[in-house]
Design a protein that fits this description.
The radius of gyration is 20 Å and the shape is rod-shaped. Strand 1 and strand 2 form a beta hairpin. Helices cover about 65% and strands about 5% of the residues. The protein is mainly α and about 100 residues long. Strands 1-2 form a two-stranded antiparallel sheet. The protein is built from 4 helices and 2 strands; from the N terminus they run H-E-E-H-H-H.
Length: about 100
């Protein structure tokens, strides 16, 4: 296939150029998953400074172990927040990505 012919095929942002036989039903689910992953990453980046400034004292708090695993805790909290409904960022990203692909719902 020449470059000119390939440029006339629809462009799928997540999968590259796709042919006429590509399934459109799998694409929105993949877009939603990517949008939720993006929202979790965003929330994690937003929460990292908050949790890095917290001091934990007491008989079970603090230490090198806590410092090493605090980022994992923040990531898990961000993923749970998205799983519970998030803050709405994934909805907007999904809608815009589907619109860019011509798969408006």
């Amino acid at each position: 296939m020449s470059n000119l012919a390939a440029s006339s095929l629809p462009l799928d942002v997540l999968q590259g150029v796709r042919g006429a036989t590509a399934s459109k039903t799998a694409v929105p689910a993949d877009v939603r998953k990517a949008a939720e992953d993006f929202e979790a990453t965003f929330l994690s980046a937003l929460l990292q400074p908050v949790f890095s400034s917290l001091e934990s004292d007491g008989p079970f708090g603090g230490g090198q172990g806590e410092a090493a695993f605090k980022s994992f805790l923040v990531d898990a909290m961000a993923k749970q927040t998205v799983k519970a409904g998030g803050v709405g960022l994934a909805d907007s990203v999904t809608r815009d990505l589907l619109k860019l692909q011509g798969l408006d719902q």
